[in-house]
Write a structure and sequence with these properties.
There is one protein chain. Helix content is 46%, strand content 12%. It is of the alpha/beta class. The strands form 2 sheets. A 6-stranded mixed beta sheet has the order 5-4-3-2-1-11, with helices on one face. The protein has a 5-stranded mixed beta sheet with strand order 6-7-8-9-10, with no helix packed on it. Helix 2 packs across helix 4 (57-75) and helix 8 (127-140) crosses helix 11 (164-185). It is globular and about 95 Å long. Catalyzes the phospholipid dependent N-acylation of the N-terminal cysteine of apolipoprotein, the last step in lipoprotein maturation. The chain crosses the membrane at residues 37-53, 60-79, 91-114, 126-146, 166-186, 210-232, 564-585. It comes from Leptospira bouyouniensis.
Length: 589
């Protein structure tokens, strides 16, 4: 009843308006709408609520949760779709799960309001600096499953986005709130006019402070826009040392069969579809690399081992088709699969199910049809690929029980065959031939197509939402030619999630100064260059089969500031500002 009375009161109406202002303006700035003008006014809702409730800690916490729920409802509404489709929950369970996740995973809002209000009551000056410091702290030190930052929205501006080479999205968030609070000062033009005409001429000390504040504001603008422009010009002029022809196959593979479809028939159709899509694209024009997405062929592996056979995930026809594609076209093939093993300390005479570890894995097959290096996903998605507690697996039968990988190595790729298909005089193999031919038979059939194995480069492999964890990605070893992100966003339906996912991950291209190949199962596959620009702004359609092909530039290797030092500048900023605030408060207490 208290909540109902609050919502119909004047205070409640203003509060909900503020929540909505921040949520809607952020959403309009976010991909795929891309109207970055609105992002500068999105924090106004937070500023209004904090100013109206300064020092009222309990109220600020409740308002923080209000912002969290409205933000999820507007921007991350697809989580409800995931809860019903992936989790299989009815609406009366999905709604409280959605609200609970909105509150638990958006503590940044109440933390921001509390910290801002605390500093405002103690310092009582430098509010743009306080706003900047508070959002940086809140984004750094609050838990999130899908880490998103206001700085990712600012990065829709290509000039400002270049600053991510030094600060990632965090620095752009701090910049946004610093500038936005100055704009918040100007929300009442009549008061500004009165201040300039009547108050300041009589108070020289205050006039000096105002001038210093304005000067600092323009200095910050010059630093961020100037540095962004410099970096944009610098990297736009860099000449690539090579180009790789990359083909993305988007097969729109099924993920479950609760609607009564025949699984065997659907998988056969999928394999036929993949075979034909590759054949159509590469028959007359070979590529250096073909990329299939996460879950492009679900449920199976090409890794033939005692363990994978015991748990029945090895499928010889899957391996045969991958070998056919790579040998038929003389190309590298990168695809996603399941994988499994048993820890060395638990190896015994017989395989025990509880000892087996399952991985979300991606592997490259060379132009000779041989399975080579693989990468096991390290940063797993909670509630999607594992549950924090064993008893929680009973809540959702779709949740995987994956183990994290242990290596952060690049994936080498190989020189492709430059001569025509030498086996064409015999017969080109297709999916239908895998019913009667083993992987070894396929390789023997194409033995005339074999070439000398020669590594010509490597790429950085990322599976699904690993791409949005900047601190994680920089831990990879070596200098890649480009980044490959394979993902499966089909659980979220025809929503903005897939665009948002890419927006959150796009800054890795700027942090590394490398191109990114994003291969999805069901939509928004895209190529992004080292300046964070989506090539030709061309995305594949959602919930459909599609192909997309581009020339990927190999940018000369250089360890950027962010790769070397990570979030050092953000930590320094928080440390220095925190010390300045402490000294100022003690001096003026």
């Amino acid at each position: 009843m208290k909540l109902a009375r609050f919502l119909i009161s004047r205070e409640g109406f203003i509060s909900v308006f503020c929540y909505t202002l921040t949520a809607v303006f952020s959403f309009l700035s976010f991909s795929p709408i891309n109207l970055p003008f609105f992002v500068w006014f999105a924090p106004f809702g937070l500023f209004i609520i904090e100013k109206s409730n300064r020092g009222e800690w309990k109220k600020l916490i409740y308002h923080g949760f209000g912002f969290a729920i409205l933000f999820y409802l507007v921007s991350f509404h697809w989580i409800y779709h995931m809860t019903t489709v992936f989790g299989g929950f009815e609406w009366y369970l999905a709604v409280p799960i959605f609200i609970g996740s909105a509150i638990l995973l958006n503590f940044k809002f109440p933390v921001y309001l509390l910290l801002f209000s605390f500093l405002a009551t103690r310092v009582r000056r430098f509010f743009p600096l306080i706003a900047s410091f508070a959002i940086l702290f809140a984004e750094f030190f609050t838990p999130q499953v899908f880490p998103w930052y206001f700085g990712n929205v600012v990065a829709e501006n290509h000039i400002l986005a270049q600053n991510a080479e030094y600060t990632s999205a965090y620095g752009l968030s701090a910049f946004l709130f610093f500038v936005s609070y100055f704009l918040f000062y100007l929300r009442k033009p009549k008061q500004i006019q009165k201040l300039l005409q009547k108050y300041l001429p009589r108070h020289k000390k205050t006039t000096k402070r105002v001038l210093v504040g304005v000067l600092v504001f323009f200095l910050v603008l010059v630093v961020f826009f100037g540095n962004g422009y410099y970096l944009f010009q610098k990297w736009e002029k860099v000449k690539p040392i090579a180009e790789r022809d990359v083909l993305i196959i988007q097969p729109n593979a099924p993920l479950e069969f609760r609607d009564g479809r025949n699984p065997a028939e659907e998988i056969r159709n999928l394999m036929t579809r993949i075979d034909r899509m590759v054949e159509k694209e590469l028959k007359d024009k070979p590529a250096d690399l073909v990329v299939l997405p996460e879950s492009g062929v679900p449920f199976f592996t090409t890794h033939d081992s005692e363990v994978t056979r015991a748990i029945r995930i090895y499928w010889h026809q899957f391996e045969s088709l991958m070998a056919i594609i790579s040998l038929r076209h003389g190309t590298n093939l990168f695809f996603n699969e399941l994988d499994a093993d048993i820890p060395a300390e638990k190896l015994s005479g017989r395989i025990i199910r509880n000892d087996i570890r399952t991985y979300n894995s991606s592997v490259v097959m060379n132009p000779n049809g041989e399975r080579k290096n693989s990468y096991q996903k390290v940063f797993l998605l909670i509630f999607g690929e594992y549950m924090p507690f064993e008893w929680m697996y009973a809540l959702s039968g779709q949740t995987g029980q994956f183990a994290p990988g242990a290596k952060l190595d690049l994936i080498p790729y190989y020189e492709v065959r430059k001569t025509p298909n030498l086996a064409a005089v015999q017969k080109d193999l297709h999916w239908e031939d895998t019913f009667v031919m083993s992987p070894n038979s396929v390789r023997d059939h194409y033995k005339g197509n074999r070439i000398e194995e020669k590594v010509i480069g490597s790429f950085l492999p990322l599976i699904c939402y690993e791409v949005i964890i900047s601190e994680f990605v920089r831990k990879f070893n070596g200098d890649p030619d480009f980044i490959v992100n394979v993902t499966n966003d089909k659980w979220y339906g025809n929503s903005v999630e897939s665009f948002q996912h890419h927006t959150l991950g796009r800054l890795r291209s700027i942090e590394f100064r490398k191109w990114m190949v994003r291969s999805t199962n069901s939509g928004t596959s895209v190529f992004t260059d080292h300046l964070g620009r989506n090539i030709d702004n061309e995305f594949t359609p959602i919930e459909s089969t599609a192909t997309i092909r581009k020339k990927v530039s190999v940018i000369p290797g250089e360890m950027t500031f962010y790769r070397l030092y990570g979030n050092l500048l953000s930590y320094l900023y928080m440390g220095i500002v925190g010390i300045v605030f402490l000294i100022y408060v003690k001096k003026n207490s």
